[in-house]
Please model this.
Amino acid sequence: MAADVEVKNEPLDFIREIVTEDLRNNKNDGKVVTRFPPEPNGYLHIGHAKAICLDFGVAAEYGGICNLRMDDTNPTKEDTEYVDSIVNDVRWLGFEPAALYYASDYFDKMYDCAVELIKRGKAYICTLSNEEWDEYRGDLSKPGKESPGRLRSIEENLDLFTRMRAGEFEDGSMVLRAKIDMASPNINMRDPVIYRIRRVEHFRHGNKYCIYPMYDFAHPLEDAFEGVTHSFCTLEFEIHRPLYDWVLEALDYPHRPRQIEFSRLNLTNTVMSKRKLLQLVKENHVSGWDDPRMPTICGLRRRGVPAAAIRKMCKAVGVTKFDGITSMALLEHCIREELNSTASRYMAVLDPLKVTITNFPEEGVEPLDAVNNPEDPAAGSRKISFGKTLWIDKADFMLEPPKGYFRLAPGAEVRLRYGYFIRCVDVVKDASGEVIEVKCTFDPETRGGNAPDGRKVKGTIHWVNAEDCIEAEIRLYDRLFTVEQPGADGVDFLTQLNPDSIKSVNAVMEKSLDALKVGEVVQFERVGYFACDQDSTAERKVFNRTVTLKDSWAKKK
Model:
């Protein structure tokens, strides 16, 4: 059911304490049934990942099941494209739903439930306009007043509701309201709308329906129809829970799911609002929903983030009742922890500087052994070639190095990773005075990085054989926004976009990387972790930087 989800022998969060107590009391006949119910009106983001891990995780830990349900009760924004992406994202995260349901499949049953509420005198047709209802509803400082529709007979309400369904009335001309309490301190309990007219084609049912249930009416019924025992929602639904319970009680529904709220996942330097994410896509601030800078699951996947790292972060954040904001550094820490043990190592130079080994044979090529992953001996080793002309990173050479600089400089000696000691003996500059080539000698006695005479060098740098390499495009991604909480204090979040959130460079790298498949993630030694992007072609690879090697979160801990 789930992957890498294990909380036994660990302190339980408050939700798992509730489930444990329910099982101890044999509530729900000892069953645990949960559900993940996204609306298919956009792509899932990392905030949804926390809910997915909780819904599927709890079910797995307690021997229950978790269903995936598409909450498709609002046809204006929903689409099959989003359904497919949601199913793929849930499975990619490591979870397999026990069943896939659609709220729209229950529309006829929901209609029958609404009719039953009318018959019981607990729902009525209201013809007040939105502006009029704003006045009738009141506010937190004063109670509302009753709609004239409350005085209609049951027979008249049934007749109007039947005609609503038949399409006799215009959109917005009337609604079906639950008859609850216009003086309730909870605004949501002041005769909320449970059905409205909306002539919009549904992506699954076409024009079969012209009235649609509201989410607050549909949600408890869907849970009850499916036998859900524990309905986990984020904190904004806490104020809606009395209505959730009222619907089931008003219908005397035999099965009563329990709604429990928890804090949502908020991440720094990004936005989680579907509306804002859609705006980023539609206004071309990003390349699409799967842009590697986006917090969407498909964007994170394209960037090279492992599903296990997302699950690990969700577990680290925990389940609480208090809203907070999680540092992006925690996610990056979890990514590094996961990739450190799984990603193969290669060498790539992102800002190449030519190095000529003056005492190496002109046509010589020497094979060297390179470790694929020092964290995983089973990963083995590979052959890399050493030759007369190499590429190193420009940052690894300085003409006038400061104190404490242990890389290559005139007269200085460094160790080449897996190779030899080399010493700078000369430089070549262009007309502007910039160094364009470094000439060095190598010590053939230092193969593998050790000198037989015992001399030591403090610096080790990476390199690529210029005669045995490939060129590739490297996309260096950074935070999408320059501030931790975009849009806070009423600021237009678009003004806080990071203009340097993507930078493209041409790099050189080991030739063996040409065989890498789209989606595979590797470590470029001393540089970071990179994923082979879907824009790669047979002629030219494209890599996305997943995360750098520096881990600020580990230092904070």
About this structure: The mean pLDDT is 95. The two ends are 32 Å apart (CA to CA).
